[in-house]
Amino acid sequence: MDIRIGIANTARELAFESAQTAAEVEKIVEKALTAGDVFVKLADDKGKVYIVPAAGIAYIEVGGGETRRVGFVA
Questions:
Q1: Are residues 39 and 56 in contact, defined by beta-carbon separation less than 8 angstroms?
Q2: Which of 35, 32, 27 is nearest to 57 (CA)?
Q3: How many CA atoms lie within 13 A of 69 on its CB side?
Q4: How many CB atoms lie within 10 A of CB 52?
Q5: How far is the C-alpha of 57 from the C-alpha of 8, rounded, in Å?
Q6: For the chain, which terminal residue's Cβ has fewer other Cβ atoms within 10 angstroms, N or C?
Q7: d(Cα 53, Cα 58) in Å, to the nearest integer?
Q8: Phi and psi (nearest 5°) for 28?
Q9: Within 10 A of 7 (CB to CB), how many other CB atoms are there?
């Protein structure tokens, strides 16, 4: 699953691939924002953990991982 997080007052976004499903990511973010948690914690498919301040989140985009084609395009 591709995840892109826009952070307020930052020109770049945080982008990574995760083994978590879209529903799991949505549940984690929704819980953090409604419960007033300080941080949102997500993990990528390589074992890295990303901790983002909940107050600084501008947007989160969760999309299906696109399969990459191998070979030449004519």
A1: no
A2: 32
A3: 4
A4: 17
A5: 6
A6: C
A7: 11
A8: -60, -45
A9: 15
**Closest among 23, 25, 65, 64 to 41, alpha carbons compared:** 25
Is the model's pTM score more than 0.90? no
Structure tokens at 73: 């395009």
pLDDT tens column, 13-35: 999 999 888 899 999 999 998 99
Instruction: Confirm if 20 and 48 have CB atoms less than 8 A apart.
Output: no
Cα separations in angstroms, 24 against 14, 40, 47, 54: 18, 13, 16, 17
What is the chain's Cα-based Rg?
14
Whether the CB-CB separation of 50 and 43 falls below 8 Å is answered with yes
Position 1 scores a pLDDT of 85
Question: Tens digits of per-residue pLDDT, 34-65?
Answer: 998 999 999 999 999 999 999 999 999 998 75
Q: Domain coordinates of the chain in residue numbers?
A: 2-63
